[in-house]
Amino acid sequence: MSMDLNGQRVVITGITGGIGRASAERLLQAGADVIVSARSQDKLDAALAELSGKASGYVLDLLDMDSIAGFFEKVGKFDHLVTPAATSMFAPIADMDFDAARAIIESKQWGQMMTVHHAIKQMSKTGSITLFSGTVTQKPLPGSSMFAAVGAATEASARVWGLELAPLRVNTIVPGIIETPVWSGLMGAEAGAEALNGFASVLPVGRVGTADDIAKAVVFLIDNGFVDGESLVVDGGHRLI
Questions:
Q1: Which of 96, 147, 173, 176 has its Cα between 20 and 30 A from that of 231?
Q2: Domain of 58?
Q3: What pLDDT, on a 0 to 100 scale, did the predictor assign at position 185?
């Protein structure tokens, strides 16, 4: 993939997760100036130390409206927004932890909405916003009702915002099963690896996805100015089985 994003400023809200980091690396390789965030200065400094190119960043708490507003004031004018969110939970409705469920809504839905609300004050009208959902919005997976609900809300909101904010483009990436630290965080290292191996054995492409698979989609949606209001599924054929 050879794309020229020289002169483009891209904000990625979150750099400590696999997809955020891989996206930053791809965008830097394409020549973009990349501004990233983390919830603490230590995590931000560690992430920036591993990136090469025009990378900078600021501390950001996606659950705090004042933190979000202050972040974008520091960023100033920019072109593209990418909002990966690593928070997740799995629980059947009969055993739902409603405090954890509320936290998912606050981080993945309210957090994204507040981010977009403040970001557009600084964004180029010829830029783009890339949001994130998940294929559980289209292929049910037991225990994923909260993740599916907030993902569906994101996809629907993106289409509305694509009209409201035109000509600024708004798209959603819908990842399938991706090998990121989320799995070990949810299940523990051994159980997470076992689950990923199980998915790999049944997916049509014969493997689970990587963070870089999703990062390539991020770069595509930023680069292609004729894609708008799209929910781009990157799932290795998961919906086919």
A1: 96
A2: 9-180+210-233
A3: 62
Distances 79 to 73, 125, 127, 145, 198 between C-alpha atoms, Å: 14, 8, 5, 34, 40
- The predicted pLDDT at position 87 comes to 65
Confidence of residue 127 (pLDDT cuts 50, 70, 90): very high
Asked if residue 93 belongs to a domain, the reply is yes
Q: Which two tokens stand for residue 13?
A: 């809200």
Average pLDDT rounded to a whole number, residues 39-64: 93
Question: In the prediction, which pLDDT does 3 show?
Answer: 74
Chain centroid to CA 229: how far? 16
Identity at 65, one-letter amino acid code:
M
Please tell me the distance from the alpha carbon of residue 230 to that of residue 241, in angstroms, as a whole number. Answer: 22
Beta strands in 4-137 (DSSP E): 9-12, 33-38, 55-59, 78-82, 123-132
Place of tokens 């409201």: 164
Q: Answer yes or no: is pLDDT of 1 > 50.
A: no
- Report yes or no on 70 lying in a domain: yes
CA pair distance 84, 172, nearest whole angstrom = 10
CATH number assigned to the domain comprising residue 77: 3.40.50.720
Asked if residue 169 has pLDDT above 90, the reply is yes
Residue 198 and residue 206 in contact, taking contact as beta carbons nearer than 8 Å: no
- Torsion over CA: 44, 45, 51, 57 (sign): positive
Helices 211-223, 18-29: inter-axial angle, 10-degree rounding:
50
What contacts 66, CB < 8 A, 6 or more positions away?
none
